[in-house]
UniProtKB/TrEMBL annotation:
Keywords: Cytoplasm, Kinase, Phosphoprotein, Phosphotransferase system, Transferase, Transport
Record protein name field: Ascorbate-specific PTS system EIIA component
Leader sequence residues: none
PANTHER family reported for this sequence: ASCORBATE-SPECIFIC PTS SYSTEM EIIA COMPONENT
Record's subcellular location: Cytoplasm
The PRD domain, residue ranges: 284-391
InterPro entries: Ascorbate-PTS_EIIA_comp, PRD, PRD_sf, PTrfase/Anion_transptr, PTS_EIIA_type-2_dom, PTS_EIIB-like_sf, PTS_EIIB_2
């Protein structure tokens, strides 16, 4: 088989992993010119021709590669010596090797197996030790045992699952895992596991996404090779009620049908894996129902001082996610949210607030909620924050996304910000799209090509998370074709580089590309009042709005006293104070969001004139609604004028309240200076 150069091979990896991979993105990630990309494509096509596979074509800055080509290349049995394991893949492969080995593995083994230098392997082992510590797993070494993991078996499995998660999106995942296992029988074991798992899923009609299903298959296929411990999984995982469930009986039968022997504890673990990945109406999810989701929404409203519209819809979507999160968190099953960094960057305030919103969920499970899970919940709330006035929207769009809820929600939020004239009426997958009536939409945004859209409708293909440049490109396309608005020039980074290359020698392609991208980014910066101009908490809590009192007669008096600075500076009217008190009487002591801290609020229509926030500290606690379980010493009154202007200040407050140390300092403040000092901690 023909060998292609490393850069071309990396390009091929990207193309097989992302069918929406553009020429501009390739130039940026690989640090090369358009001509070099074209050269690499020609070399890749020579490899495809040798194997009688349809070639890859270039058209209008995009790679055209059909599904048949992807399937055939994925099935190519590329000899291991023909490709180089690079980047983070080495780290995850080493984790799997250590988990699966029955022989001592030393440094020289990894150097030879991964074709890496001594320093590189040592660096990878340090990364593994750091990652393992997050799961309370130690990477140890002895002459007799070589490198091995020490910790609770279920924690070690979490680390292995994380390794598979990080490898599974690579089109060479199967080859990489096979290389890590280093056993000629692995291919047969994988095929047997795949066939029987798929039969189990089909028999019980479990709605499991393909990306989750392959994770289960890969994990089970590793079990015959794990020789590190006799007790595979702690028996404490088992719950007696499982013995009476049909699915549990099926999983037991599944294990008994395999050609390799596994312990009873592994049956429990697979059962939990399936429960943590099934998207359907999970009959085993007994402890948390719709009421709990509504409670989280109410808590979000209290903390943000806003009103969430269409609560029923978001409750149902959130319930589906929390079913999965419940089992992941309870049994240490890792999750990697591909949108995490984007959520933190674009919606950092909502993310920080959701950390505080989810505290009761974490308290029940006796664990900290990981950032990846928080980001998923933040995505749910972002769908109801800051939406444009639907009555003013003229065009209707549908998002077709195969990558799950997180990707579709992220894509929807980005498109709404780019195109306020467009109403995204629904999101769906390719199969669901076939049943949507033509008269209900004008255009389709899809993350994959091949969607059958009628000629009279518009189709736009893009990544679920748009880069600055992709936002520019799709903006040009939509405004030009749908609205008939054309800019004077379609200015993109690749188009500029192409012109520069004609007249000058580019010495730093990557640096020039980065600077040009930053220049174009100005077009897509958020409105100043939603980024740099949002008030911070120290803008709102000042010496004029911070108060202290020894005691009050009742909780109503506390709300009145706490709101007085806002009444005096004209931020609110008396009607707003009465509305806050009426809300507590009507809905209960929901304003107490953590020990000794309450955030009273009401709808802004009840008497808010301008944005405001005040702080009241009582020396003697007061019980809201005379409930002894709801004592409060600090009242933070919020007057919000909309759904977003106060979010940055609230995100800072959330950070203070989710940290136990700063929360105690906040409640213990006895002077304006003390309060300002705690606020300064969050800014550090």
């Amino acid at each position: 088989m023909q060998v292609i150069e490393k850069r071309a091979f990396n390009l091929l990896q990207h193309l097989l992993n992302d069918r929406n991979f553009s020429v501009s993105k390739a130039m940026d990630l690989l640090g090369c010119s358009k001509r070099q990309i074209e050269y690499d494509v020609s070399k890749i096509n020579e490899l495809l021709k040798e194997n009688e596979i349809e070639r890859i074509r270039l058209s209008r800055g995009r790679f055209l590669i059909n599904k048949d080509t992807i399937d055939k290349v994925t099935r190519l049995n590329l000899p291991h010596q023909k490709f180089i394991v690079n980047g983070e893949n080495k780290v995850w492969m080493i984790c799997i090797q250590i988990f699966c080995t029955r022989e001592p593995l030393g440094l020289n083994h990894f150097i030879t197996k991964l074709q890496s230098s001594k320093n590189t392997v040592l660096g990878d082992l340090k990364k593994i030790a750091k990652i393992g510590s997050q799961y309370k797993v130690e990477l140890k070494y002895s002459r007799k045992l070589g490198y091995y993991f020490e910790g609770e078996p279920i924690k070690i499995r979490s680390l292995v699952l994380l390794s598979i998660i990080n490898l599974k999106d690579n089109f060479l995942c199967r080859e990489l895992i096979s290389l890590a296992v280093s056993d000629n029988s692995y291919e047969a074991v994988f095929e047997e596991t795949k066939d029987k798992v798929e039969s189990l899923i089909k028999e019980f009609n479990l709605p499991i996404m393909k990306e989750y299903l392959i994770l289960v298959i890969y994990f089970i296929s590793l079990m015959p090779y794990h020789g590190q411990s006799i007790s595979y999984v702690s028996p404490m995982i088992h719950e007696p009620m499982w013995n009476h469930l049909p699915l549990y009986a099926a999983v037991t039968a599944f294990y008994e049908s395999l050609s390799f022997h596994l312990s009873k504890e592994e049956i429990d673990y697979l059962f939990v894996l399936l429960l943590s990945m099934s998207l359907g109406d999970n009959m085993y999810f007994q402890l948390y129902r719709l009421e709990m989701c509504q409670g989280l929404i109410n808590r979000f409203e209290v903390i943000t001082g806003t009103v969430v519209q269409k609560k029923a819809g978001i409750s149902e979507n959130m319930l589906m996610h929390l079913r999965l999160a419940y089992f992941r968190l309870k049994y240490g099953i890792p999750v990697v949210n591909p949108a995490l960094m984007q959520v933190k960057k674009e919606y950092g305030e909502v993310f920080d607030i959701c950390r505080l919103v989810l505290e009761p969920f974490g308290d029940y499970l006796d664990c900290l909620i990981p950032d990846d899970e928080i980001a998923y919940i933040a995505l749910h709330f972002m769908t109801v924050m800051d939406l444009p006035d639907q009555d003013k929207i003229r065009k209707r769009a549908i998002i077709v996304c195969q990558n799950g809820l997180a990707s579709s929600v992220m894509m929807k939020n980005q498109l709404i910000k780019i195109f306020p004239e467009i109403n995204v009426v629904t999101t769906c997958n390719a199969e669901e799209f076939k049943g949507i009536p033509l008269e209900t939409y004008d255009m389709v945004f899809s993350t994959t090509e091949g969607i059958d859209v009628p000629e009279e409708k518009y189709l736009f293909v893009s990544s679920p998370i748009l880069t600055v440049e992709e936002k520019f490109i799709i903006s040009e396309a939509v405004y030009s074709s749908v609205f008939g608005i054309r800019s004077e020039a379609n200015v993109t980074v690749p188009s500029i580089l192409e012109i520069v290359e004609k007249y000058a020698m580019i010495h730093d392609q990557k640096g020039l590309s980065s600077d040009l991208k930053n220049l174009l980014q100005k077009k897509y910066k958020k409105e100043s009042n939603r980024e740099g101009g949002l008030p911070v908490i120290k803008d709102l809590l000042t010496k004029e709005t911070i108060q202290f009192a020894s005691h009050v007669n009742n909780w109503e008096e506390a709300i009145w006293l706490g709101a007085r600075p806002l009444l005096e500076n004209g931020s609110i009217t008396k009607d707003y104070i009465n509305a806050m008190i009426d809300n507590v009487r009507g809905f209960g002591p929901y304003i107490v969001i953590c020990p000794y801290v309450a955030i009273p609020h009401a709808q802004n229509q009840s008497g808010v004139n301008k944005l405001g926030m005040s702080f009241l500290k009582l020396e003697e606690e007061v019980c809201v609604l005379d409930n002894p379980q709801k004592p409060v010493k600090v009242f933070i009154t919020i007057a919000a004028i909309d759904n977003y202007t106060h979010l940055r200040a609230l995100a800072q407050l959330s950070n203070i309240l989710t940290n136990e140390e700063t929360r105690k300092q906040f409640v213990a403040c006895n002077s304006v200076e003390d309060v300002i000092k705690v606020l300064d901690i969050d800014e550090e």
